[in-house]
Amino acid sequence: MNKIFVKSSCHYTTYLSGRMRRQDFFRIWWENRTLSKKYVKYIANTIFLTAIFAGTYYLLFRDQELPDIMESVRCANNSYLYAGIGLAILYVCSESVIIHYLMHAIKQRITFLKCIRYSFVGFFFSSVTPSASGGQPMQVYFMSKDGIDVAVSTLVLMVVTIVYKAVLVILSAVMGITELPLLRENVTDIWFFVLFGIIANIGFIILLCLGIFEPGIAKKLSHFVLSGLGRLKLIRNTEKWKERLENSLKKYGAGAAYIRENKKVLVHVFFITLFQRLCLFAVTYLVYRSFGLKGISAYKIITLQTIIALAVDSLPLPGGIGASEKSFLIVFAGIFGKEFVLPGMLLSRGITYYALILISAVVIIGTQLLYGFRKKKRVVGKK
User: Fold this and answer.
1) Half-sphere exposure of 310 (CA within 13 A, CB side)
2) 11, 3 in Cβ contact below 8 A?
3) How far is 148 from 103, CA to CA, in rounded Å?
4) Rounded percentage of the chain residues whose pLDDT exceeds 70
5) How far is 291 from 301, CA to CA, in rounded Å?
6) Which of 64, 46, 89 is nearest to 329 (CA)?
């Protein structure tokens, strides 16, 4: 593809110098339009993400005293914030443990360092694409570059996804039931999004499980849903969507035998994922304590943060931008108080989302340079 791009660039230069006919230039551009579409998609995603970010924070700050907010942020205890950053990094690396564990369980040799790379790749691309749609495809791509078969990487990431979603639903249910008065007091204003999150996550888990154990039922159910969406004009080209979904279900179906025969592995993955989720949700408690606030237990704050995660997890927004910030301000208004709720949101989201995006970008670039250097060194060594 790079050769095609270079070739097109040369033709473009020739065209500008008057040595190439206009129709020839447009013919070459049309032949390589998939490359153009790829870059247009990346640019569109970047513009979309920037617009949501700018709009969200403009609405949040337009009626606020920015100097007072920044002063509150500066007064936060850095020790708690550094601990929060450590938990956020541990959250991403916990997925690395799961991937490494599953790879070894299916006799796929892989280093833990590479698994860390896959996890940061997944977090970065999930965070900057709508509905986290870019994370797993990029993880599969990076795994394939390391010689891991697509079927193997798909199976591993399928297990990771099912358990990750299941833990969120179960954790929300258990903690929510034990803290019903707390939810009635703080979560009623976002009940619709919580309900949507419950339905969407359970539906997604059921679809994946059907794809594994009952592919025939999954196919009929998905066709019924897609036909309904087509009649409502919510999607176009229904047949294309059906074909795409069938291909996905076939890939997931390959993991049925493994999951049936390795329930113990799933139990281990469940508890590692539970630890992973709690690491991220506990960051909000550390931010709460960084302002010198007391009186609300870690369990209560983690419960509220879990419900927020459930509410925004399935929304078609990159990283839940906008919805996460607004939900935090609504749910934690009575916990942090008027003075600290906005600074608390900035620090909590800053650690669990924006800082992790930057760290992920550094890890991806750093490992790319490291692998490139090693590859170059091996080539030079052979000569």
Assistant:
1) 28
2) no
3) 10
4) 67
5) 14
6) 64
Lowest mean pLDDT of 90-94, 222-226, 230-234, 318-322, name the range: 230-234
Question: How many angstroms separate the Cα of 323 from the Cα of each of 72, 328, 331, 333?
Answer: 23, 8, 12, 15
- Round to whole Å and give the CA distance between 119 and 272: 14
pLDDT score, position 51: 72
Q: How far apart are CA 203 and CA 227, in angstroms?
A: 17
Q: Which of 222, 212, 214, 216 is nearest to 251 (CA)?
A: 212
Cα(280)–Cα(94) distance, rounded to whole angstroms? 11
The helix or strand, by DSSP H or E, that contains position 46, with its residue range, turns out to be helix 33-61
The reported pTM is 0.76
pLDDT at position 41, please?
A: 60
Cα–Cα distance measured from residue 80 to residue 356, given in angstroms and rounded to the nearest whole number: 17
H or E segment and range at residue 331? helix 323-331
Q: How far apart (Å, rounded) are the C-alpha atoms in residues 255 and 47?
A: 37
Q: Please, which residues have CB within 8 angstroms of residue 250's CB and are 6 or more apart in sequence? A: 215
Q: Which residue has the tokens 């600074």?
A: 343
**CB 117 within 8 Å of CB 364:** yes
| Phi, psi values for residue 133, rounded to 5° | -75, -20
pLDDT (tens digit per residue) in 65-100 = 566 667 777 888 999 999 999 999 999 999 999 999
